[in-house]
Write a structure and sequence with these properties.
This is Putative u2-associated snrnp a' protein. It holds the Pfam family LRR_9. It comes from Ixodes ricinus. The chain has about 250 residues and is an alpha/beta fold. The chain has one domain (about 1-185): Ribonuclease Inhibitor (Leucine-rich repeat, LRR (right-handed beta-alpha superhelix)). It is about 20% helix and about 10% strand. The protein has helices at about 1-10, 40-45, 110-120, 145-155, 170-180, and strands at about 15, 20, 25, 30, 55, 75, 95-100, 125, 165, 165-170. The strands form two sheets. It has an eight-stranded mixed beta sheet. Strands 1-2 form a two-stranded antiparallel ribbon. Helix 2 (about 40-45) links the parallel strand 4 (about 30) and strand 5. Helix 4 crosses helix 5 (about 170-180).
Amino acid sequence: MAGSTAASSNGPKDDQNGTVYEPYRNGDISYVGRECQSIPDRLVHAYAFAAVRLDLSFNRLCTIKGIEHFIQLTELVLDNNALSDPSEFRFNSQLKTLSLNKNCFENLDFLISSIEQCYPTLTFLSLLGNPACPDQITNPDKDDDDYQRYRYYVIHKLRQLRFLDSRAITASERRESRRVGAFMKVARPRLYEAPTWAEEPEDATRFTPLPALSSGSQKKTVYGVLKYKYTGKHSEGNRFIRNDQL
């Protein structure tokens, strides 16, 4: 392949233990376990237009900026990284496989909506090991019912999928997802954090709309019952007229 030869001759090479590291071969880029935090520019410049498969697993990726240059990709593997922002996905009508196992995605609705918009022909998706995925591997407090509800929701949203989390989607799952998938959104309650208040100096003046408690030397208001008897010369109307006097 002319494209393969050109990419290989100009690509990045790392000498490690006396060997030459060549990440590109026949349309595949394997840049695994290199401890990179973003997609290296040299990968983009050398291989972006020739690569059909990109594997960046077991790195420290917290961003995939630059992925938009890999316009020929049909398979993208990003397992075991620190990715958390689905808004960095870019449109690719050719991508069929997306593996995001063991990352930091939390909002399932945002994640699936982004995938739906960016990868309309996706057939394989794996999200195991993310907070957004209620699998019992990383979420031991979840059960099989939680995971099945999650599957119904994802299958309902991404109707072209054939495999979810390395498991084939069955005909019964597809039927059930059409019936209940829209109502199976996985809710993750936020943990309540008590507000923290800055400590005030002991002599700080505090505003209060109520009067402060008075000291012992001041007079205090006392509530009680007082018997009232009118002894004046003026009438108080019908207030003191009994029924037998009318």
